[in-house]
């Protein structure tokens, strides 16, 4: 089979399955299996695929037609210009989370803690963009920390420490004091309809109660229970823009004030 013939058939199948990015996804799968870049594939439509390649492509195509995220299928997701290994144990890093890094870099913090690190995308990116900062990645799920450690080994060896913790509970006073917290916690309300690709992602990393703010309530409660000397300097939170008012009030009720906000991100001091 010619590569272009497979590409056309794949695009048609994904379109019939309701995948909006059918053409692009088909190209990505062909790149992934053939080892050829997109320019070569498009310039060589008559290139022949082996039986093994066709079998591998059709297997991956069936997974995408079932709306499994492309990142899980090819095994990585780009974030802030870098490739992060991802699997179905971690949430796929989103472009909107890059704003946390952009805002944090302006502060040049010396100490960063990524709460709910998942794949480690925020922690590792912070470590690479802030070479003078000490960075700690925290998650309650050991499977997430395994993924984080794999990404650290590839992208930032020795630059990020990891710790299993329910939010702040296992973080020592000296680690927390003066730190900048990066918090991309679950914030999707329980009854909010999500797209079919997101349904393949770990639901505990998405949903957080009737209004989506249960984990942030717990975070600010844990902060309130710590001695004043352990107070972080800044807290970056990601949530839906429609939640910003409620999250701002929640932070304010615990003695934090809004410093800046942009799109999905709010920064409290």
Describe this structure in words.
- The protein is α/β, with parallel strands linked by helices and 269 residues long.
- The chain has two domains: 64 residues, Helicase, Ruva Protein, domain 3 (Orthogonal Bundle); 190 residues, Vaccinia Virus protein VP39 (Rossmann fold).
- The chain is built from eleven helices and nine strands.
- The strands form two sheets. It has a seven-stranded mixed sheet, with helices on both faces. A two-stranded antiparallel ribbon has the order 1-2.
- α1 runs parallel beside α4, α2 packs antiparallel against α4 and α6 runs parallel beside α7.
- It is elongated, with a radius of gyration of 21 Å.
- The protein starts with a helix and ends with a strand.
- The mean pLDDT is 96.
Give a quick account of the main beta sheet: strands, pairing sense, barrel closure: 7 strands, mixed
N-to-C CA distance: 60 Å
CATH architecture of the largest domain: 3-Layer(aba) Sandwich
Helicity, as a percent range: 40-55%
The radius of gyration computed from the alpha-carbon positions, rounded to a whole number of angstroms, is 21 Å
Instruction: Specify the overall morphology.
Output: elongated
Low-confidence stretches: none
Q: Which structural class is indicated by helix and strand composition?
A: alpha/beta
CATH class of the largest domain: Alpha Beta
SSE ordering = HHHHHEEHEHEHEHEHEHEE
* Percentage of residues in DSSP E strands: 15-25%
Main β-sheet, spatial strand arrangement: 5-4-3-6-7-9-8
Oligomerization category of the chains in this entry: single chain
- Summed up, the domain count is 2
The CATH superfamily of the largest domain is Vaccinia Virus protein VP39
Strand tally is: 9
Number of helices: 11
CATH topology of the largest domain: Rossmann fold
